[in-house]
Amino acid sequence: MKVGTEDKKKVIILAVLGVVIAITAIWELSGFFSSPKPQPAPIQAQKTTSATQTAAAASASGPEAQHVSNPGADVSLHLDKLAASEDVEYAGTGRNIFSAMSEPVNIPKAVSNGRIEQARAAGPPVPAGPPPPPPIDLKYFGYSQGSDKSVRAFLVHGDDIFMAHTGEIVNHRYKVGTITLSNVQITDLSYNNMQTLPLVAN
């Protein structure tokens, strides 16, 4: 009687295990044959945001380079032209720079210039002094003598006429010196230059 009860318990346990195994197998098979799950929306949004940030960073670094298309360009390799360039040999007329045994070229001396030789024979140039002062732009065309025997000179500067005694200044620049019947001494105060002006007729 006891043996039959143990057999029933074993049968019940085996039945329960079989049910559990069957449920697990059905669950696994249903997951294997089902369609793949769609990706969640937040991941897609994150990828879009990342692409936008990458484009914004590229535009902030500088403008986009211009794309130049040249459909007529020949980018093929021409072996015949390369072979022709390899056959070129160096054939210079002067000294061979690649050989240490070649003789130096005899370079003729330059013909001496006669003017240069004359300048060397004459010696170093004498430094010129300061330029001479300009001539005094006055004309002595007459004089007058007063009762006290003093003489006044009549001087012309352009369209202006001046009457001056000895020691007076003409045109804010010229100082009258000794006055005689034939000439007058004038000093250019700008250059400290004295000249003698002769008496000239009108």
Shape type: elongated
Spatial gap, N to C terminus: 180 Å
Average pLDDT taken over every residue: 74
Radius of gyration: 60 Å
The helix fraction, in percent, is: 25-40%
Strand content: 15-25%
Question: Strand count, sense and closure of the main sheet?
Answer: 4 strands, antiparallel
Got a strand count?
A: 7
- Give the helices and strands as they follow along the chain: HHHHEEEEEEE
Structural class category: alpha+beta
Helical segment tally?
A: 4
Main sheet strand line-up: 4-5-6-7
Low-confidence stretches: 56-62
Describe this structure in words.
The chain is of the alpha+beta class and 202 residues long. 35% of the residues lie in helices and 19% in strands. A hairpin with a 2-residue loop joins strand 2 and strand 3 (160-164). The strands form 2 sheets. A 4-stranded antiparallel beta sheet has the order 4-5-6-7, with no helix packed on it. A 3-stranded antiparallel beta sheet has the order 1-2-3, with no helix packed on it. The termini are far apart. The protein is elongated. It has 4 helices and 7 strands, in the order ααααβββββββ. The model is unreliable at 56-62 (pLDDT under 50). The chain has helices at 2-33, 41-61, 79-86, 114-122; strands at 139-145, 151-157, 160-164, 169-170, 174-179, 183-188, 193-198. The protein has a domain at 139-198.
